[in-house]
Structures are given as C-alpha cells and as structure tokens.
C-alpha cells in the first residue's frame, strides 16, 4: 500500500468524488496552494495510485436497460484456461466487470444489455460458447440500492 499522508488521502477523496475538479479548487479544498497540489496529484498518478479519470454514464439513458450478473464455472482451472477466458471477456464490450472468485463459481461478470432479447443473444452466441465454459447462471438486477465506485478513504 502506498505511503499516504492526510493531505494525499483528502486529495484522493476529492478526486474520487469529483474527477473534473480544477487544480485550483482541489488545492483550496485540501488547504494547499495550486503548485504543490499539482505536484502531489502527479506523484499519485506516477505511483499508480490514481489509475485514470472517467465519466460516470447513465446506462439507461444510453439504451442499456438491463444489468445482469453472470456466475461462470469453467471446465478447467489451469492457468492457461483462466487466462484464455479472461482475455475473451476483455474483448466483449457488454462485459463491464470480470472477477475471478474462489469457491464453487470461477468468475462473476457484470454485463449490460439493451434488453432481454439482446442479452439472450449475447448469452447464447458469446458467453456460453466462450473458451472453457462449463456452465453459466445469470441473475438480472431489479434495482441498485448502492453504487459507490472507488474505495473508502476515511
């Protein structure tokens, strides 16, 4: 874990909440002047603590009405089979997250789709025939009670 002081943590919390804040405003919020604030942010970027900046989009307004979680079991857990599956998932834009698990299920995927018909097509033509897939169990989200990107910094 990076060696962060209180100012670094406040910088990260502010950027995590509002990635488009100006350096001048960010400096004001954490009690610095602009030049040292910018140096600290750049150092956090160079250390890889800040990996990037992203806009949060409203999926439904862009036509992606459903979110599905898929639990995938593989035929083999050999490292090359795991890597091949992960690489295939990276190439599917509908798959927004892919996490390897320990336990009965090998992977959990977060998938977005325009509608049930589109999801069914994705499931049968892209996910179930993916390399090394033994079984897929899916659950459609009904609603999201909490969506908090990032990590707790306080």
UniProtKB/TrEMBL annotation:
Gene Ontology molecular-function annotations: sequence-specific DNA binding
InterPro entries (UniProt xref): ArsR-like_HTH, AsnC-type_HTH_dom, Dimeric_a/b-barrel, Tscrpt_reg_AsnC-like, Tscrpt_reg_AsnC/Lrp_C, Tscrpt_reg_HTH_AsnC-type_CS, WH-like_DNA-bd_sf, WH_DNA-bd_sf
PROSITE patterns linked to this entry: HTH_ASNC_1, HTH_ASNC_2
BP term (GO), one: response to amino acid
Signal peptide boundaries: none
Protein name as annotated: Lrp/AsnC family transcriptional regulator
HTH asnC-type domain segment(s): 4-65
CDD domains to which the protein is assigned, alphabetical: HTH_ARSR
Coiled-coil zones: none
A GO cellular component entry from the record: cytosol
SMART domains with a match to the protein in the record: HTH_ASNC
UniProt-listed Pfam families: AsnC_trans_reg, HTH_24
Top-level division of the source organism's lineage: Bacteria
Keywords on record: DNA-binding, Transcription, Transcription regulation
Entry keyword annotation includes Secreted: no
Membrane-crossing residue ranges in chain numbering: none
Entry annotated with the keyword Phosphoprotein: no
């Amino acid at each position: 874990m990076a060696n962060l002081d209180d100012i670094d943590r406040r910088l990260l919390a502010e950027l995590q909440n509002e990635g488009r804040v100006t350096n001048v405003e960010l400096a004001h919020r954490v009690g610095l002047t602009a030049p040292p604030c910018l140096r600290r942010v750049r150092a956090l970027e160079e250390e890889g603590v800040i990996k990037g900046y992203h806009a949060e989009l409203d999926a439904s307004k862009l036509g992606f009405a459903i979110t599905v979680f898929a639990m995938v079991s593989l035929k083999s857990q050999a490292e090359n089979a795991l890597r091949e599956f992960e690489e295939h998932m990276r190439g599917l834009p509908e798959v927004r997250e892919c996490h390897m698990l320990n336990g009965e299920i090998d992977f959990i995927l977060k998938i977005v789709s325009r509608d049930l018909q589109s999801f069914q097509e994705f499931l049968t033509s892209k996910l179930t025939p993916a390399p090394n897939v033994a079984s897929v169990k899916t659950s459609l989200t009904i609603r999201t009670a909490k969506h908090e990107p990032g990590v707790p910094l306080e």
